[in-house]
Amino acid sequence: MKASAGGYARASSLRDALEMLAASDGSGRVLAGGQSLIAAMNLRLSAGDFLIDISRVGELAGVSETADSLRIGALTPHAEIGRNPLIRHHATLLSQAVEFIAHAAIRNRGTIGGALAHADPAAEFPACVLALGATLHVEGLNGTRDIRAEDFFQDIFETAIEDGEILTGLSVPKAGADERQVIEEVARRSGDYALAGVCLVKRTGGHRVSLFSVGPKPILAKNAMAALDRGDVEGAVEALKAEIDPPSDTQASAAYRRHLAGVLLRRAAARIEGGNA
Amino acid sequence: MSKVSMVLNGKSVSADVEDRTLLVSFIREVRGLTGTHVGCDTSQCGACVVHVDGKAVKSCTMLAAQADGADVVTLEGLANGGDLHPVQAAFREHHGLQCGFCTPGMIMSAVDMINRHGPGNLDETTIRHELEGNICRCTGYHNIVKAIKAASDQMAGMAQAAE
């Protein structure tokens, strides 16, 4: 057994979890589905944390709707995001993304809040909520804060969540009647993290393009969005390639990732606008 | 230390375990049920798949403490006495294994897949896609896919006969 933990406690409520987090003096680590955290513990990339298990805090799970938005609880598992009728109807980008995330058994445990708080730059959900213009809700003992997706993701595995706060959920605007949402990615093996990925949303107010796995955090490609608003797909592809600075690693070179990003945007645009990819 | 109690293959069990104890370690080392295997312990390979409250999970990426109060079924819990579960029987019939290391996870994923899609509703493409989280390094998957298809169809026939 290789994992190392500095203790474990199951929270009975959000308040209970926040109090344990405050009392842990910086050593507390929030455990939800554990599909990244426990794997990291097994690899000893993460060790010695006091685990505060929120996975049974019922108030943090589930999906509800208001007139113009969906409220998605942080503990809603990926499998539920994929099959929930409200999400399939009003925020199909999220349900499409589930198909790309890992494997069935992982999707049963992994949660959307865990994925967003973990902020893996290669993960799908952070880029999805950026493209959708979602608002993330965090809570601490001193109260709640609403953070726009644009301001939430700050660096690799780094978010705007402060010490002592827990991500409780997110609000996603409902898609308009003529809105289209698509996600495209390339991975080496089905269910692996993407080498590069693109989310494209076309709504009355204009296009939104976000990318994942091409930098330290999900990126909103504003110049590509402006070009798509003008109806210029090739211009958008060129703009996109200029506004990202992808890393080279053992999986792919920067040049290959930049090329893939352009191909994926062309494919996404073709799915929405018609025409050849 | 955490006190962990669960129903494991229909039997109530309980033990005091270290906080870091993985569900798979609890199953294999505390309870001695070695049918569940550990391949990668980072949720890639699927050899450790068990069912927790009726859903497939990778038991290497869940703490035993998180399964407290749950109903857990492992490979050993599938057969009814000497009668193999239809998926186990199909793996034998179609030779859906060579070294056998991945087989427990393959079978637990297959049962989950048939439950989710409904018996008789699996085609080869769906089965292959659904097996993305279970790695086999021997068979090339052909006989595994055949076995799952056969079991799914046979279970549909059994469900029909029971009506």
Q: Which features does this protein show?
A:
heterodimer; A: 277 residues; alpha+beta; Uridine Diphospho-n-acetylenolpyruvylglucosamine Reductase, domain 2; Uridine Diphospho-n-acetylenolpyruvylglucosamine Reductase, domain 3; 3 domains; four-stranded antiparallel beta sheet; 14 strands; 36% helix; B: 163 residues; Ubiquitin-like (UB roll); DNA polymerase, domain 1; 5 strands; 15% strand
Description of the molecule:
The complex is a heterodimer of chains A (277) and B (163). In chain A, a hairpin with a 6-residue loop joins strand 13 (206-212) and strand 14 (219-220). Chain A is 36% helix and 26% strand. In chain A, the strands form four sheets. Chain A has a five-stranded antiparallel β-sheet with strand order 4-5-10-6-7. Chain A is built from twelve helices and 14 strands. By secondary structure, chain A is an alpha+beta fold. The mean pLDDT of chain A is 96. The N and C termini of chain A lie far apart (48 Å). Chain B is α+β, with helices and mostly antiparallel strands and 163 residues long. Chain B folds into two domains: 2-77, Beta-grasp domain (Ubiquitin-like (UB roll)); 86-162, DNA polymerase, domain 1, CATH 1.10.150.120. Chain B contains five helices and five strands, in the order E-E-H-E-E-E-H-H-H-H. Chain B has helices spanning 23-30, 86-93, 103-117, 124-130, 142-162; strands at residues 2-8, 11-17, 49-52, 55-58, 71-73. The relative contact order of chain B is 0.15. Classes of the chains: A alpha+beta (277), B alpha+beta (163).
